[in-house]
């Protein structure tokens, strides 16, 4: 009998989480995504899925069910992390306010609402580990219990442990314990992008177009050593962070974010959208649409595909 567990992806973005599940044989039947560019990317890559380009706060579960025809077996998704990340200096001081008052943080409650309404066998919600700060993990556990899921696990995983060529730590909140076996070795930047030619229309590689940079910055990046950033800025607390980092070719990349721009290890230019997508484990067949900034943002906000696939493999064993 063919394995075809049905997946609904909430806060789906361009489909990194779904891509990993698709690679494991799951059927992606639906997605909810407010950003029109990301939703267009998702629809292009998963043409059989019904994509709801809606604000989830205004989307009724019955509307989803009427379009899908049946309840999904699995619901996945990554609500916005801005309200929870420790890197946000404007994060609510009171932990409960992050969940119940912050307009982005409270979107977690809509993930929980739809899970409660559609009753999947498994749900997996991705976010930053900061969502557990201040005892908020227990509050989230209570919210899931309120809609019928008394068992909730907080699975903290590192993307680089599962074949992603970049660092990323995230918590996956689920009604199942998720502990995939680590790959045992890390994939480096050069393993991920080394076979790509310089960006040139001749090669017809999707999303592999040059990224413009001022003449002054081009001169300055030429002097950067591996691991050295062109721009320093103050992050959370007293941390000093960097952007326009020249990547070390023989290590995994730093965390890829929407605002991140990396310098090529050997060439004096910025990485293309395709190269950064490779650092997140996307296959070249996964295409991004919209402005260049939007494409970078879609890549940076995704769940890394190899990590998503490792999680999907564990879920498949359970089901």
UniProtKB/TrEMBL annotation:
GO BP: methylation; negative regulation of gene expression via chromosomal CpG island methylation
Keyword Lipoprotein recorded: no
Transmembrane intervals: none
Keywords carried by this UniProt record: Methyltransferase, S-adenosyl-L-methionine, Transferase
Pfam entry (one): DNA_methylase
InterPro entries in alphabetical order: C5-Methyltransferase, C5_MeTfrase, SAM-dependent_MTases_sf
Xref: SUPFAM superfamilies: S-adenosyl-L-methionine-dependent methyltransferases
EC number, UniProt record: 2.1.1.37
Any one GO molecular-function label of the UniProt entry: DNA binding
Entry keyword S-adenosyl-L-methionine: yes
Annotated family: Belongs to the class I-like SAM-binding methyltransferase superfamily. C5-methyltransferase family.
The name this protein goes by in its record: DNA (cytosine-5-)-methyltransferase
Organism of provenance: Thermofilum adornatum
């Amino acid at each position: 009998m063919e394995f075809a567990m049905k997946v609904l992806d909430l806060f789906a973005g361009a489909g990194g989480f779904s891509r990993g599940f698709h690679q494991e044989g799951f059927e992606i039947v639906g997605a909810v995504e407010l950003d029109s560019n990301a939703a267009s990317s998702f629809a292009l890559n998963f043409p059989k899925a019904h994509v709801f380009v809606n604000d989830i706060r205004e989307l009724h579960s019955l509307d989803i069910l009427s379009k899908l025809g049946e309840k999904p077996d699995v619901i996945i998704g990554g609500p916005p992390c801005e309200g929870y990340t420790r890197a946000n200096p404007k994060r609510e001081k009171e932990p409960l306010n992050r969940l119940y008052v912050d307009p982005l943080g409270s979107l977690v409650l809509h993930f929980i609402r739809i899970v409660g309404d559609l009753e999947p066998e498994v749900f997996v919600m991705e976010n930053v580990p900061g969502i557990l700060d201040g005892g908020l993990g227990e509050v989230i556990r209570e919210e899931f219990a309120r809609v019928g899921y008394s068992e909730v696990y907080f699975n903290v995983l590192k993307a680089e442990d599962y074949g992603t060529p970049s660092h990323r730590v995230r918590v996956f909140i689920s009604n199942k314990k998720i502990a995939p076996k680590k790959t045992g070795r890390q994939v480096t930047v050069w393993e991920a992008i080394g076979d790509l030619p310089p960006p040139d229309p001749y090669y017809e590689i999707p999303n592999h177009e040059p990224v413009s940079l001022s003449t002054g910055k081009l001169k300055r990046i030429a002097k950067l050593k591996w691991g050295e950033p062109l721009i320093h800025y103050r992050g959370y607390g007293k941390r000093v962070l960097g952007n326009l980092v020249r990547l070390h070719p023989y290590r995994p990349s730093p965390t890829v974010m929407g605002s991140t721009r990396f310098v090529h290890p050997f060439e004096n230019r910025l990485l293309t959208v395709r190269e950064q997508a490779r650092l997140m484990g996307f296959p070249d067949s996964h295409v991004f649409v919209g402005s260049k900034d939007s494409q970078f943002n879609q890549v940076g906000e995704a769940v890394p595909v190899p990590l998503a696939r490792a999680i999907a493999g564990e879920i498949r064993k359970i089901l």
